[in-house]
Design a protein that fits this description.
8% helix; 142 residues; mainly beta; 8 strands; four-stranded antiparallel sheet
């Protein structure tokens, strides 16, 4: 009886999906990076991580802000768990070059990402072309 109640509850939680399905599993034989959702980030928030692959959550915000001390210029990963794109800026107060992180997207290893936009267009702004790893100081919800 209890098992039927649990299974019934699971059916409701999965929004009407029926039938048995196996839960995702991990394997020690997998050699590639983890590509799941970074952990600890609340729905509607932007999250910054001090570790790659969504590890070591440093801070999260659901509004435009400068990164706090201890998180600014110490970025290895980011996750935009909001419904709008966010701009990640090279400098405090939305200064200099930025990178657009679409809603629902993440950067697992910022050594692979570069600031690629300037506020006035072109390529002439502070931080343009620089690696994002340990260089992000502000987030702007757009």
């Amino acid at each position: 009886m209890l098992a039927a109640l649990v299974l019934s509850s699971l059916g409701i939680l999965t929004l009407g999906v029926t039938g048995a399905s196996a839960a995702p599993t991990t394997s020690s034989s997998v050699t590639g990076p983890y590509v799941g959702q970074p952990e600890g980030c609340n729905l509607g928030f932007f999250c910054s991580y001090n570790g790659g692959n969504g590890g070591n959550l440093c801070f999260q915000a659901n509004y435009s802000t400068n990164f706090p001390t201890g998180c600014a210029d110490q970025n290895d990963g980011a996750f935009n768990y909001s419904s709008v794109p966010v701009n990640l800026y090279w400098g405090f107060n939305d200064y200099g070059a930025y990178y657009v992180l679409p809603a629902g997207h993440y950067l697992l290893d910022m050594t692979q990402n570069y600031f690629d936009k300037c506020p006035s267009g072109g390529t002439s702004c502070a931080g343009y072309g620089q690696i994002m790893y340990d260089n992000v100081e502000a987030v702007l919800f757009t």
